[in-house]
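Weekend entry, working from home. Most of the wet-lab plans are on hold until the incubator is repaired, so I used the time to fold the two sequences that have been sitting in the queue since the last round of cloning. Logging both here for the record. First:
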Amino acid sequence: MSDCSAMEIARSVAAGERSAEAYADDTLARIRQHNPSINAVTAVTEDRALAEARDIDARRLRGEALPPLAGVPYVVKNLYDVEGLVTLAGSAMRHKSAPAAEDAILIQNLKKAGAILLGTTNMDEFACGFTTENSHYGATRNPHDTDRIAGGSSGGSAAAVAAGITPLSLGSDTNGSIRVPASLTGIFGLKPTFGRLSRRGTFPFVASLDTVGPFARSVTDLALCYDALQGPDKGDPICAERSNEHVLPHLSLAGEGLRVGVLTGYFEENVEVVALAARDIALDAFRETRPVRLPEVERARASASIVTASEGSMPHLDALRTHPQDFDALTRDRFLAGALLPATWVHQAQRFRHWFLRQVLEIFNEVDILISAATPWPATLIGQKEEGLNGDKLIVARSLGFLTQPFSLIGLPAVVAPIPRKGAPPVGVQIVAAPRREDLVLRAASQLEQAGLSHAPVAAAFQQSGELH
């Protein structure tokens, strides 16, 4: 069952070949078996999962048409509100907070689609990090090599999918927190356009950058989940007017006719050779490519960092004054630095942000998608502080977002597609499109998958020879 796709599970449940409860039981067994070695799942919602699964089975027995994700197990980053659970957001200081009164909107949408929630997953404290080495709840380990990080801040959600615990999971992406762990754990991840999906019921990090989205082991599953997540939400002003724009039907077009811009300059200079090689492998799937050099990319990343530091620290100022010792030390230092930023820097960063968006949108008149490596290097060792690049020693926790942050700044949609490397940690490529063109990034990823260049099997050590019971 660990290799089953979401689409296969939903088809099997709808056909009566296997019950939703059996799939839920299997998932609970895999959590018990595999989670101790990777520390991906922080809370298990067993009673809820079995109740939801039995409801799906009862509806099938009554002859009702089942929704598209009926019986599909999934987990969510623990910054999503789950009714009855404390929303930890990776922080020990929230442990005594009141439990959530209702589910986050995206969880409500997946429940309507028939998916079964199995639990919540580990993350960097308050989503402020790229490694999921959480000092309160422990590091999440990469299923492909448990001595290595899973990336962050949605590392637990990515690791759960890469280990075959669930076929789907939800994360969040502010500066690369879906794209970085997708790259490092060898799975697919989607960062939608800013405001495309409702964030209501998720613990905020940076209001003007935060996005939410899914992980999966196939493009079809990724698109199926994304379609189920969509819908306007009057409680989230940014997406109150958004209508459903389903992308799954467009995957049959794959990458046919796509004009591909290959990002050069900064995007080739700030990567190790193995990550650049992954990008070059991906280019073999496309007929029409051209080099593209974005202007002032270094400044775009710096601006994203300034906006993140300034906005991200604001909700925590009181806690920083009264009990700073309760923060993870690295998170505390980042928030303190953000609180001390000069207002003129923040103003300049916001002005540059609007200029940079205009420049990039002009480029999309000439190309449909942009492609680069997703991370500067594959997964580093847990506890490793620095990594070499171009003769310099860079801090891992700050540098994994080199290639993702420029696009976070301007809210563009992006997919990370894994490029497997035999006998070595995986690394992914990043595919970016104009606002609200999730269909294009998913079509391009599907082209890579169909060409046999991108695939995301369950990590070898976690594959099962048969069903768990």
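Second, folded right after the first finished:
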Amino acid sequence: MRIHSLADIRRVLPQIDLVELMAGAFAAYSEGRAVVAPVVELPLERGDVHIKSGFLSGEDLYVVKIASGFYDNPALGLPSGHGMMLLFEQKTGLPAAILLDEGHLTDIRTAAAGAVAARELAPANVDRIAIFGTGIQARQQLAHLRTITPCRRVIAWGRGEAQLASYAEDASTLGFEVETTLDASLAAQSAQLLVTTTPATAPLFPADAVRPGSHVTAVGSDTPTKQELDPQLLAKAGRIVADSLPQALLRGEIFQALSAELITETDVAELGDVIAGRTHGREDREAITIADLTGVAVQDVEIARAVSEALA
């Protein structure tokens, strides 16, 4: 059994096209070629832990991923997320590799999924990107959006001036021109491509703050109790897309809107079906589109496989 450190993993990541890898993973999932187990969730007093697992038919490995979020950790000088990925042979069940990624692979596969969603659903001409949050995922989402849009103007919302200043400094090194604000509604009104990346448990901005023709990618709400979007926003959307419809019925923004009886299951498409052309993405220039990404084990399966192969 091979054991690889985060340094090993970082060394080979530039060899992998993460956006195309995630697009293929979603397409495989919606085609029924992936087997994923229900999410195991451990809600702890100061954080939460998710265990996701699955495999793709025709491949050699299955993957079990452990990822945690402890959101008070930065005040202690510690990362808010951590974890590892365990790879096993499908034929024998024997362990093949351990990727001690410290949660990094979860971070970047989530960000690459955000880029896929924006590529499929965002308007053609994006003048400004709004990022909600200032943590690792907020940074990674912006980094991966560079590959699918030429837009370099950003408005960033956060809960503190110091966090926003740090975010703006980091984003500027990636070539972005960043304005910061403590007003979430202003951020929403100022952009055509919005990405929410927080562990919020209540909507960040009202539905009417989002302009017609905009796209919203929500990645923070991955439990039944987290929520970043006003359910009314989903009710007025022209297209709602989930990474996994079965998961979206149990957690995330779609779950919240379904619980409020503002949408029905038939209003939701899967991202993999949009990628494969089996259903439409954005059809109306004035429509609001929403991607609710709760994170699917097939993403972990494919990024773990690709990294493991690159390290072999």
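Plan for Monday: verify the second prediction. The chain has two domains: 2-105+298-311, 123-296.
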